[in-house]
Amino acid sequence: MRKLLIAIFIIGSLQARFEQWLGVYVKSYKIGYTHIEIDRKTSGYEIRETTVMDLKMLGQPKSLNTTTVVQADKTLKLKSFEFFLSTGDQRVKSTGKRTGKSMKVSVEMNGRQGPSRELPADKFLVPTLLHARMILNKPIPKTFKLYDPSTFTIEDAQLLKITYKFLSYQGKKVKAKEYVLKYLGYTTHTYVYNGRIIRDEGALGIVSIDEPEEVATRIQNQSVDLLRLFAVVPEGNVPQDAKSVELELSNIDPNFLDLTLDGQKLIKKGKDFAVIKIDVPDLSTLSASTEIPDSVKKYLMPDEFMQSDDPRIRDIAMNLTSGLENDVEKVERIKDWVYNYIEKKPTVTIPSALEVLESKRGDCNEHAVLFGAVARAAGIPTRVVVGLIYANGAYYYHAWNAVWIGGRWVFVDSIFNEFPASARHIMLKTGGIDKQTEIISIVGRIKIKVLNFE
Questions:
Q1: What domain count does the chain have?
Q2: Which stretches in the chain have pLDDT values below 50?
């Protein structure tokens, strides 16, 4: 009897803990690994997921380490989570705690308290808990809210279907359970066999594959440059001094993108293509009107990442624009200051104007949030724009700003010191980091043809 009890105890202990490693690949390049641990406790589950990636951005090595720790009840309902991100450029901590029908989430960047939100807790999931539900064969709602702590965004997600598919696994054909989900405009496929995720096909063509620890953690010495890997080489080219460009964008869903904003117009669209025209305005012809419509006034308000109400930002705005007579001069002055203030350096961060103000370095995202905060503090409605920019024969993913002056929106790009921004810019979405995640669905897929230019 004693031996039987010991055997039962050992079996129970083995079942109480799950662990697996997955190698992470993009376009056949090994870029990192993920480690998943699930511990069963008397009150429920503790799930830990760690991901390590080694990359390059425009030739500069970048490392990215994330850890998510989830506390869930016996039914795998989320109770709380902690998320840690370290990139070498920034340390981020995001937490969430369920209280009644609400989930309070907050973020801390480099030890500085950032924004917080209170969200409905019903059908609220984080990616780590989603993976655990698949591994433990627990139900996933048909529709739910998926919160990504790495970008502080929450999106509607759908479980499109659960089916079965034969895959090669450990030298044999196995019948794996396939979860097909859709969010942010892209579709993911996760395959589970014998209680393990054996393959996960996510955004950006990133694929995770079940591997032994010693294989999964073996990363190639040659880091992959993601920005160059996903650059889009168009048919034709766009001169730097072009005043007007007409382009055809294909292999996209035009209804999911923001393709019209004054200087950029949608000419024609179909199921999977759009024709747009980009015109560079003559600033001297803009109206001198300073009246701001009610629909535009919201772009004067501070937000979670453009803290235009902060005293330091307001002082900078006042010092830069004091004595200037019109908004064109103000934008020019702010753009020049941001261009000279920030060291041009590719970074992996959640961009925040106050963080950039202190670090004094960054890429297009950091320039856009700092410019936006200072411009709003100066009384100029400003929004962040994300899309593509043409340089060195290809289009690269990029962020810049649009300012409301003279009764219209005008693009300004402080990292390239352009006002108005050149016709080499293609707007795909307007908004902050949350909108940047929305264009993931076209990364690596969009095709561009230059129809004509002047």
A1: 2
A2: 1-14
